[in-house]
Every structure is written in structure tokens, then in C-alpha cells.
């Protein structure tokens, strides 16, 4: 997980940031997850990798005029999510949210209500986020 989510993102940023800087800025979009902030027993490794990717995204925002945007969402209807019987976002909806957010200069795009709620819960007592700890 870390090879793809963290180190893959780091390699991508290192490769493209100088090109973007030479061309006056541009944007890098990192697709993260609601699991950057919360985890479940079956997703611990994935969540840890996404949390590291979130931290990396926040750390690479450089002074070179390149916009670095973090996109957080729950589940989109993609091949990766086919085995999960949960509500899923239409990928076209996600793409529109990303394009609109980048155009507005957003540094972080929270695509759905579950993600907005998860981010807000970061300031809460952990027992609110993980009721099993109560």
C-alpha cells in the first residue's frame, strides 16, 4: 500500500513539479479517501497509506505557484469497489467536483457528506469516531 499511495505519489510530484514550475504553475490533484481520517479493521493498511498520502499532499504545497489539491471521497463506482455492497458515487460526479474545485483554487475537495462528516469528526473525542472504544 505505501509503495503505491505514498511513494507513488511522492515520485509523481517530484517528476512533475519542476515541469509545472517551468511552465508557470499548474495543478497537481491527489486522490485521497475518507479513509485518510478514519479506518476499519479490513482497511487498516489502506487507511494508513492514505493518511500518509494526505500528510505528503499537505507537505508538498510549494511556493512555485503549483496548486496541490487533495480530493477526499467515500466510495466511487469503480472496478476497485465492485466487491463492496455500499452506496457509491458516480465517477462523473467526482470528476466534475474535482474540475470545479481546482478551477476555484480549492486546496481540499470533500466530495460527499460522509467525507465532510469524517473530517469534522477529527476534532471530536475518538469514542465518537469509533463507538466500539466507548
- Taken in chain order, the helices and strands follow as HEHEHEHH
Q: Total helix count?
A: 5
Extract low-pLDDT stretches.
none
CATH architecture descriptor name: 3-Layer(aba) Sandwich
Number of strands: 3
- Number of structural domains: 1
Share in helix? 40-55%
C-alpha end-to-end distance: 30 Å
The Rg value, from CA coordinates, equals: 16 Å
Family: Belongs to the short-chain dehydrogenases/reductases (SDR) family.
Protein name: SDR family NAD(P)-dependent oxidoreductase
Keywords: Oxidoreductase
InterPro entries: NAD(P)-bd_dom_sf, SDR_fam
Explain this structure to me?
This protein is mainly alpha-helical and 134 residues long. It has a single domain (26-133), classed as NAD(P)-binding Rossmann-like Domain (Rossmann fold, 3-Layer(aba) Sandwich), CATH 3.40.50. It is built from five helices and three strands, in the order αβαβαβαα. Strands 1-2-3 form a three-stranded parallel beta sheet, with helices on both faces. The longest helix is centred in the N-terminal third of the chain and has 21 residues, at 2-22. The model has no long low-confidence stretch (mean pLDDT 87). This is SDR family NAD(P)-dependent oxidoreductase.
Please outline what is shown here.
With 134 residues, the chain is mainly alpha-helical. The chain has 5 helices and 3 strands, in the order H-E-H-E-H-E-H-H.
Task: Output the keywords.
SDR_fam, Rossmann fold, mainly alpha, NAD(P)-bd_dom_sf, 134 residues, 5 helices, oxidoreductase, 3 strands, SDR family NAD(P)-dependent oxidoreductase, 3-stranded parallel beta sheet
Amino acid at each position: 500500500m505505501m509503495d503505491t499511495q505514498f511513494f507513488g505519489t511522492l515520485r509523481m510530484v517530484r517528476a512533475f513539479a519542476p515541469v509545472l514550475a517551468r511552465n508557470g504553475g499548474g495543478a497537481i490533484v491527489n486522490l485521497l479517501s475518507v479513509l485518510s481520517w478514519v479506518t476499519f479493521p479490513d482497511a487498516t493498511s489502506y487507511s494508513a497509506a492514505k493518511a500518509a498520502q494526505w500528510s505528503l499532499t499537505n507537505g508538498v504545497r510549494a511556493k512555485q505557484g503549483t496548486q496541490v489539491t487533495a480530493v477526499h471521497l467515500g466510495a466511487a463506482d469503480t472496478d476497485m469497489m465492485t466487491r463492496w455492497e455500499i452506496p457509491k458515487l458516480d465517477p462523473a460526479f467526482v470528476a466534475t467536483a474535482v474540475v470545479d474545485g481546482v478551477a476555484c483554487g480549492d486546496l481540499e475537495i470533500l466530495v460527499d457528506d460522509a467525507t465532510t462528516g469524517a473530517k469534522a469528526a477529527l476534532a471530536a473525542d475518538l469514542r465518537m469516531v469509533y463507538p466500539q472504544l466507548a
